[in-house]
Amino acid sequence: MNMWRWDLKGALFIGFCAALLVAFKGLLRMKLGLSGHSMLLMTFMYLVCLAVVPRIGAITACGLVTGALAMLAGVGKGGPLLLIKFGVPAIAMDVMLLLGAGALSLRWRCLVLAIAGSLAWATKAGVVSLLAGMTWQIASAKFAMSFFQGGAFAVAGALLVPMVVRKLVAHDVVGESGSS
Amino acid sequence: MSLDSKRRQSSLGNCWRNGFEFGSGYKLLLVVLMTCSVFVVPFVYLPWFSLLAIGLILHGYFLGASLKVLLIFGLVQTAFTLTLYLIFHTAADFPSALEALLRLFLAVVPAWWFAVAANPDQTASLLQRLLPYRWAFVVAASFNMLPFMMTELREIYDLQRLRGARISPQQLSNPKHWPEFVRCVLAPLLIQVIKLSQQLALAARSRHFGRHSNPTRWQPPKEME
């Protein structure tokens, strides 16, 4: 599937979803005091993107555009590392979609993709710890904590998606199959 | 002389004249090089990286950035990692833990500095050159829509709170209220965003967007002079 030959409408929707995600991070800043809460909105927006633009690569595109916009807007402390922060879970979700998650029902697809995204998110934390020179026990502990905290928020975000998709279908802005 | 080499010379000239004021491309290169090398260099080189990081922190501070983010990151990572080391190892392993923490901190400082010091116009211009034109347009359009999105989000949020929706920051700390937030704020916003993307795509297509083999790209005002 050629990523660069998408229709402009879908590409713009992905870009606007990315802008919305950055706006949320900049504006609301839900101070839940827990690590991994960024996975909630991230997973939600990625899955909405997939529901409206049902193509392999839609989530990756949304992740990378979000990273680029966050970098431009100066959100957080990440700079260019934001591309990795937003991009890695998105790529993992797309890989899982390629491996057959697309055949599942909407609710189960969202759950499986959310778990894949949080797994990638936690793996990134573990790998960075190992690269920094921490022992494998510490890296594993960081991986496990990131996975459970990020995973809980990601699953919560994924469970909200079917409700939104139903609303979008009811307003006739998205077809029954998901495409806008 | 080609346009690219002229642009390169002019950019290098500006670097020379303005000292620290070099372009986003050079800043990005510095961030990538420093972040990658801080994980692989031997310990003896870390003091040099620390000196460079102190310079970047001072530069960011004099540009008006708050050091709170870096401070919180450092404290949280230190407390969390040392606790884990106490659980899994002994206090004798603290020096290796501190070295790892130093490497982590030195990897974050350049990224923070980039977020503070990079000119968004220059970074956008850099992205325009790196991305395919269709995605460059998407990034530019989305970046320009960011203030509009924030205003819409705030307006919808305020209106929904006025009508009594249970979506205040305190109420949102309870997951029970998240579906209401999605129903009241996110769903209307997404409907608006879908319609906006359809309108913008139609407007761009009607102006023959994507028909030319060598399309023009947005440039920051300084480069156009």
UniProtKB/TrEMBL annotation, chain A:
Residue ranges spanning the membrane: these are 12-28, 40-70, 82-104, 111-131, 143-165
Q: Which UniProt keywords apply?
A: Membrane, Transmembrane, Transmembrane helix
Q: Which domain of life is it from?
A: Bacteria
Protein name per Swiss-Prot or TrEMBL:
Core component of ECF transporter
* Organism per entry: Shewanella gelidii
